[in-house]
Design goal:
The chain is mainly alpha-helical. The chain contains five helices and no strands. Helices cover 60% and strands 0% of the residues. The chain is globular and about 40 Å long.
Length: 87
């Protein structure tokens, strides 16, 4: 797949809008700064998953953003207290 910089920029914009809380309670612990600095090539992995979700699976940008985070960093874990309240 050819990687387009526009998808990378879009992903980073989503990250800025959502803030660090979107990265909390994941299997892989990283900060928004780690992603922007491309620590361990994490940005490239997220960018790839984000673009693939949009171009190959026809998902919208918000879903693709969360999909990329879940695929690369693992899904957000729900605290036990909060999970017990879900019917």
């Amino acid at each position: 797949m050819i990687m387009y910089d526009s998808y990378k920029s879009d992903f980073l914009e989503h990250l800025e809008q959502k803030g660090d809380h979107i990265l909390e309670r994941r299997k892989t612990s990283v900060s928004a700064k780690d992603i922007r600095d491309n620590k361990d090539n994490i940005l490239e992995q997220l960018w790839h998953e984000y673009q693939k979700a949009i171009t190959e699976y026809d998902c919208d940008e918000n879903y693709s953003f969360r999909f990329a985070l879940d695929e690369v960093l693992g899904p957000q874990r729900v605290p036990a207290k909060q999970a017990a309240q879900v019917p």
